[in-house]
Amino acid sequence: MSDTFKRVLDYWKTNNVSLVSPLDAATVREKFNQAKLAVAEDFIEFHSIVGGMNFSGEDPNTWSCWNIDRILEENQSYSRPGVMFADWCINSLFHVVRCESEKISSVWVDDFSDEKPFKVADSLTEFLERYLAKDSNIFIL
Known about the structure:
5-stranded antiparallel β-sheet
């Protein structure tokens, strides 16, 4: 279990974030495969630990890290590279993971402007460490 993922979960619990129960890694992987969404192993592990937030759940910074069902629903019409997995400030912008390798995801921001999404972290772990450190350069203000 990644220490970073566990610390994110602990942070959410401390802040009374409304969470869903996590699914085991095999089930998470199967759901993404069935939806034809390419995600790396770190993202599968993350979701098998944290589960994600309920539909209306958000942290104290109005960031909502979606549960698997919401990820599958929101990505049905997403045509850009990667998989949207979170939004900030009620859909003001979206966080997207892209596979850098079979094991590692990078994290991008998409604000649906005319500009292309831009990378904010080379790995999911880096992104979440910066999230816990309240680094505004990942666009969670």
